[in-house]
Amino acid sequence: MSLLNVQNLTKKYKNKTAVHNVSFSFQSGKCIALIGPNGAGKTTILRTLAGLLKPSSGTIQFEDEGANHDIRQYIGYLPQFPVFHSWMTGREFLIHSGELAHLSKEESKQRTEELLIKIGLSDEAGNERISRYSGGMKQRLGIAQAIIHKPKLLILDEPVSSLDPIGRRQVLLLMEELKNEMSILFSTHILTDADEVSDELLLLHNGEIVESGSMDALRQKYQTAQIEVGFENDLEKYAEKINALPEVDTIQVERNILHVNATDISLTRQKILEVASDENWPLTTFHINRASLEDMFMRVVNN
Ligand code: ADP
């Protein structure tokens, strides 16, 4: 059985449906990115899974869920805007969080030391007040607090979106390391972050999952490319010949460059180069322009 099964999850706020009929399952050991623009429903889904919001309808089921449906032991959750007791030191904060998660004082101290090393805040940093921490340090501390009780599933809401490049890199590296110990579900609106650490993506738009799968599978399915071919002159003549190739969908002419759109880019490239070589065309440029991940997302959403 999967670690987590979500069936037809719907969440309405008064008359606004934020999440509509969302279903997915989550195998143990995976890192899944929930990706979508602001307002897509990511926070609502994550808060519902974390037990902080009640679904309007649908079911959420965890593997081995006890009869009392207490899921807190399975889940660690870091909200998008975590609040810290900033007068505490990082070390004090983690010991306190461990006790709140029902660890004994000794267990909590021991786990705190383990985690401070893992998040790179051992030594002096652990004894500094949180008010002096950078955004990246706070986020890593927040992750440590979320996993103090060794949950099976770590839920992170936009863990890197607000960080500077260094903080972002450190948090992504930490997530990469944690993938070996637990399953991770995190939200982001930045595709490159999702691409970097996740095994699979759930693409969310207007509260619905519009596509899912590995980044490679999605690239295969949606990523398009365009071949740019440049000539010194006689553009119309070459455009006509390229357009006659059965693989070519459309051509746009821009100054002395032809922009060739085709579904099978590698075959089209081969065909154009064959004709160009046979007929000794005066090529000035030949370039393949791949669509960005953002373009790919727009294609999924507009499909
Ligand atoms: P995301 O995390 O993808 O930005 P949210 O889950 O925060 O999306 O929001 C989804 C939709 O639900 C948005 O249209 C948002 O305005 C609306 N929404 C979120 N929280 C509330 C609330 N407490 N009351 C009413 N509408 C809300």
UniProtKB/TrEMBL annotation:
Residues 4-231 form the ABC transporter domain. SMART domains: AAA. It comes from the Bacteria. Gene3D superfamilies: P-loop containing nucleotide triphosphate hydrolases (3.40.50.300). The keyword ATP-binding applies. GO terms for molecular function: ATP binding. Keywords: ATP-binding, Nucleotide-binding, Transport. PANTHER family: ABC TRANSPORTER RELATED, ABC TRANSPORTER, ATP-BINDING PROTEIN. Belongs to the ABC transporter superfamily. This is ATP-binding cassette domain-containing protein. It comes from Ornithinibacillus salinisoli.
